[in-house]
């Protein structure tokens, strides 16, 4: 079979020739990315519902992929759950960075962004509680270092800006936020989690905070 060739114009104006095989590889990579995302979503759902007993075959079925495809991505359940937990951590890091970017660009108030980030982070902790428990039980190894560094740097910028403006309490630190995350009653009822958020909110804000509603709390 003869594959077609195509001219590709680079940014510097040079022209290179590539074959249809490149396009096919791109399609396969895109399929692999979609399959991986579907597998992770199915794992989140089923492990949350069924715990450690959920079968890999059931995860593959809900994800809409063949069992062999699942095992090509994740050789065992521990590796799969490590990837799920890592995705949660990466999402939090991305969220923190975007919050700081909005504040740095002057598009948002720092106290609102910090409160919003904390609310989203705590709700994610609640949603991921069962998955993390199962992951630990299976000995899943999660790489926290890189996303945790990104999140910490973004939160440090937010807190520094908030303290300087008086919108956040002057002695607030990133460690304080991590303490709140560790002790958040993520496995509690909606009412318990909402009340917990209401109680901790005043302890974060400074005297010039624009916050009038604060953390809304988890939805019923």
Q: Give the helix level as a range of percent.
A: 55-70%
- CATH topology grouping of the domain at 76-220: Tetracycline Repressor, domain 2
Q: What class do helices, strands and sheet pairing give?
A: mainly alpha
Helix and strand run: EEHHHHHHHHH
Number of helical regions? 9
CATH top level label of the domain at 76-220: Mainly Alpha
The best one-word shape is: globular
| Mean pLDDT value | 85
Rg for CA atoms: 22 Å
- CATH architecture of the domain at 76-220, by name, is Orthogonal Bundle
Question: Would you write up a description of this structure?
Answer:
The chain is mainly α. It has a domain at 76-220: Tetracycline Repressor, domain 2 (Orthogonal Bundle), CATH 1.10.357.10. 65% of the residues lie in helices and 5% in strands. It contains nine helices and two strands. It has helices spanning 20-50, 56-63, 67-73, 77-104, 110-127, 129-137, 145-165, 174-183, 190-200, and strands at residues 5-9, 15-19. It has a two-stranded antiparallel sheet. The radius of gyration is 22 Å and the shape is globular. The protein starts with a strand and ends in a 20-residue tail after the last helix.
């Amino acid at each position: 079979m003869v594959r077609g060739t195509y001219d590709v114009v680079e940014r510097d104006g040079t022209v290179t020739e590539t074959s249809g095989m490149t396009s096919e590889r791109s399609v396969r990579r895109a399929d692999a990315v979609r399959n991986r995302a579907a597998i992770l979503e199915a794992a989140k759902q089923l492990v949350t519902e069924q715990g450690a007993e959920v079968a890999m075959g059931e995860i593959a079925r809900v994800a809409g992929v063949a069992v062999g495809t699942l095992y090509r991505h994740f050789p065992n359940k521990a590796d799969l759950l490590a990837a799920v937990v890592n995705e949660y951590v990466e999402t939090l890091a991305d969220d923190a960075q975007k919050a700081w970017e909005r504040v740095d660009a002057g598009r948002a108030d720092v106290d609102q962004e910090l409160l919003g980030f904390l609310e989203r982070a705590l709700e994610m902790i609640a949603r991921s509680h069962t998955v993390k428990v199962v992951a630990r039980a299976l000995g899943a190894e999660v790489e926290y270092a890189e996303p945790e560094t990104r999140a910490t740097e973004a939160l440090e910028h937010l807190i520094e800006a908030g303290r300087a403006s008086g919108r956040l309490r002057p002695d607030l630190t990133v460690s304080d936020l991590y303490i709140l995350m560790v002790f958040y009653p993520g496995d509690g009822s909606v009412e318990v989690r909402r009340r917990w958020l209401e109680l901790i909110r005043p302890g974060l804000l400074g005297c010039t905070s624009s916050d009038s509603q604060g953390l809304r709390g988890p939805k019923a």
